[in-house]
Amino acid sequence: MAASSDKPFVIGISGSSRAGKSTLADRLVNHFCGKTSRYEPKRNKRDRVKRRFGPTCSVSYICGDSYFLHRETQQRLGGNWDHMDAPDYDALIEAVDQEVKDGIVSLVIVEGFRAFAQIELTSMMDLLIWLEVPRQVAQARRMKNKNVTADEFNNNIWTQHELYKDMIFWREVTIGLDLYKINSATTTEVVFQGALAKLQKHIQVKPLDMSTHQSVKKTRATYGQGQPGDGDQVCHVLDHASAAGSSSDGFAGARGLPYVDYRGT
């Protein structure tokens, strides 16, 4: 994605079942928009994007769990929602692309257990966050609040996850992209701080002349928030991802990616 102050910064979050993806996404939305802000009403019945506008930042939250091929999953996949073919990738790609083109928000967060499965998706992301969790931890979390057997978890859920993980780390889906790996077997606070530390290299909240900031003007006009004024605080994207191999952490791509066990140090 080419650098542009009017293009939102796109964050991808993925990992196994119960890795803490939605928890991290919610924490990031609350951090950038403020806990007192509320999600806007959906634009229409087909709209599955959650948009939130806070005093300093605007975020679109796209959750992969809202994008499944329901009929095909029931009929062809036997109701196996963890199958690699269950997500509606075309609809998910379209949703992300539309949010980027609209330019209404500052940040777009794309979260899902197959969020990195398509090059068309990852190529729109400026930063990819992978939440790594051991099988035993994921299984314990899943079985605590989902009625699944150990056999179903090991032979289906985790098997599908390993196929996905192998695909994104050893094929071309994430090669050359800025991908950050976090140990999510720790606490949610440690995971959040690890992700935030990485994001703050790209994003900051600063005063901005919003009378010349087109995306903010468009947001205010669209949602009836009044005219922008000088001195207002706004979430500002410092930079977007550039050419392959340009990761600020020195990652050359997913192949041979070093493991980052972030513990707040």
Which terms would index this structure?
alpha/beta, Rossmann fold, two-stranded antiparallel sheet, 8 strands, globular
Task: Write up what this structure looks like.
By secondary structure, the protein is α/β, with parallel strands linked by helices. The protein has a single domain, classed as P-loop containing nucleotide triphosphate hydrolases (Rossmann fold). The protein has eight helices and eight strands, in the order βαββααβαβααβαβαβ. Strands 2-3-4-1-5-6 form a six-stranded mixed beta sheet, sandwiched between helices. A two-stranded antiparallel sheet has the order 7-8. β2 and β3 form a beta hairpin. The relative contact order is 0.19.
List the helices and strands and how they pair.
Elements: E1 9-15, H1 21-33, E2 50-53, E3 58-63, H2 70-75, H3 89-102, E4 107-111, H4 119-122, E5 127-132, H5 135-145, H6 150-170, E6 179-183, H7 188-199, E7 203-207, H8 214-222, E8 233-237
Parallel strand pairs: 1-4, 1-5, 3-4, 5-6
Antiparallel strand pairs: 2-3, 7-8
Helix pairs in contact: 1-7, 5-6
Summary?
The chain is built from eight helices and eight strands.
Helical stretch tally: 8
Spatial order of strands in the largest sheet: 2-3-4-1-5-6
What would CATH call the architecture?
3-Layer(aba) Sandwich
- Taking Cα atoms only, what radius of gyration do you get, to the nearest Å? 19 Å
CATH superfamily: P-loop containing nucleotide triphosphate hydrolases
What is the H-and-E element order?
EHEEHHEHEHHEHEHE
